[in-house]
Amino acid sequence: MDATPEDIVSLLAVDAAVRAAVGLEHHRPTANALHWTGDEDMWMALVRPGDSRALLAGWHHEFSLTEGSGRGGEAGTDLVGDAPGWWRRGVEHARSHDAYLGFLYGWDGARWWRLDQPVDDGFDPELFPATPLALRDIIDGLADATLLDAPDPAAVTELIAAGTALTADHLTAVLRSPDGWPEVDVEAGVRAAGEYRTLVPA
């Protein structure tokens, strides 16, 4: 995966802004993790243990074959193995959300690592908001689900590029509702993105 933790923060900020603007629930960032939930309880979180480190944890309802590693302490595929102890923060995050843990990747300050697994861990960057292309698909889906006009591709590109610095104009250009319904609260979206601006990814 090419995305750095900083890239993922930016993508999650845009996702949160769009969700807030169209009145959908979105996860607010915390001091330790950025959590995202998609369809059918699929989820992804950027967990930040500190010291330029990061963990990318999550689960996909269809493709993760490692279920159980993080839910209520149930036994499952060991996603930590002999990795550094701070990787267990990803397992703890899953348990704190009573969620299955399908994948766990560690960022050491330069690149992502994962334990070799005999089964599919369910992580595909194009299924989660971990690439601009995936986020574009998510935004298109959110607009369609909330009965907005199909977003202009060029406007979506500019919105994603703006990241945490997105403005009301960026959102207005993407979330178009010519007749005023459904209502779009672009200021709520800007506030949601603003919560990510001061975050240190790891």
Radius of gyration: 17 Å
> What sort of overall outline do the alpha carbons produce when their principal axes are compared?
elongated
Largest sheet: 5 strands, antiparallel
Along the chain, the helix and strand elements come as HEEEHEEHHHH
- Show unreliable segments: none
Main-sheet strand order equals 1-2-3-4-5
Strand fraction equals 5-15%
**Helical segment tally?**
6
The secondary-structure class comes to alpha+beta
Please give the domain count: 1
As an assembly, this protein is single chain
Distance between the termini: 17 Å
What can you tell me about this protein's structure?
This protein is of the alpha+beta class. The protein has one domain (5-194). The chain has helices at 5-21, 88-96, 132-145, 153-162, 168-174, 186-194; strands at 33-37, 43-50, 53-59, 103-107, 112-113. Strands 1-2-3-4-5 form a 5-stranded antiparallel beta sheet, sandwiched between helices. Helix 1 packs parallel to helix 3 and helix 1 packs antiparallel against helix 6 (186-194). The mean pLDDT is 90.
